[in-house]
Amino acid sequence: MTHMPVRDDHGLTDRFAPVSLQALNAKAAMLERLDNKYVLQAPVLAAAATELAGLFDVLEIDGRRSFTYETCYFDDAERRSYLDHHQGRRQRMKVRVRRYVEAALCYVEVKLKDKRGITVKKRMPYDPALFGTLNDDALRHIEQAHQTLYGRPFQRPLEPVLTMQYRRITLVARDGGERMTIDSGIRFSGLQPGGSDRQRSTDDGVCIVETKSAFGRGLADAVLRRHGQHPTNACSKYCVGMSLTGTVPRFNRFRPALRKLGVLPASTQPMLETAHGL
Question: Other C-beta atoms within 10 Å of 215: how many?
Fold first, then answer.
């Protein structure tokens, strides 16, 4: 069956050839990789896309090239996962449940950093109806992932602390071994004590781009450098969301990324406006 194209990426991927999900995973599953994150304005990304289209294909499913991701992150009461990132600890991890809306798929995912700085992702298929919760199977998966990589038990009670939704475009190198993701329209909801939510979002004209390759120096990184772009340090969407929604009191490590995204936590806005008025 031929599907009519469904385009909601403002023409960004028009020059790219399509690739199926099966072919993408065969070329570059990238469950172990080095990541670089960039904060790009839409005009810069559009200019780079012209060059990237000669090297990468774009994931297309049923005519779609842009997909909705919903993610719920979990942390303990002391927010140790967040604080480990804030303090730049070499061994750190994130736990999330991610739902791929159009595909009706869901996974429990554990992202860990090994001693080489390589990201290791362990994922387990999950019932989409359980989004926002962790059942016994999920907890065993988390414990096993932590024990296997770090050689010690995890044993930390987890609770949902942040949800987010965004649109993602996924590119894969035509020769394999490398992926690039483009996330836009990012909306965060911080899960506050007592059940209240605090919501923030990024501007539609800015994207978080992530390159994923074996050595962190892939084709996409080279293209972005030629367009004057360099990785943005400390640009985890989880940590950005926790900072923006006021869920954590400290976020100095993430200020450069927040400024590039054009957003700051609400408590800093009056100071920012005063500075702009001087």
Answer: 11
CA distance 111 to 95: 7
Residues 95, 124 contacting (CB under 8 angstroms): no
Helices (runs of H) and strands (runs of E) counted in the chain? 8, 11
Q: Are 48 and 62 in contact (CB under 8 A)?
A: no
pTM flag (> 0.85)? yes
DSSP 17: P
Cβ-based neighbours of 265, under 8 Å, separated by 6 or more: 243, 244, 245, 246, 251, 258
* pLDDT single digits (tens) 128-149: 999 999 999 999 999 999 999 9
Q: Is 67 in contact with 216 (CB distance < 8 Å)?
A: no
By the 8 A CB rule, do 233 and 69 touch? no
In whole angstroms, how far apart are CA 267 and each of 122, 148, 238? 36, 40, 19
DSSP conformation class of 275:
H
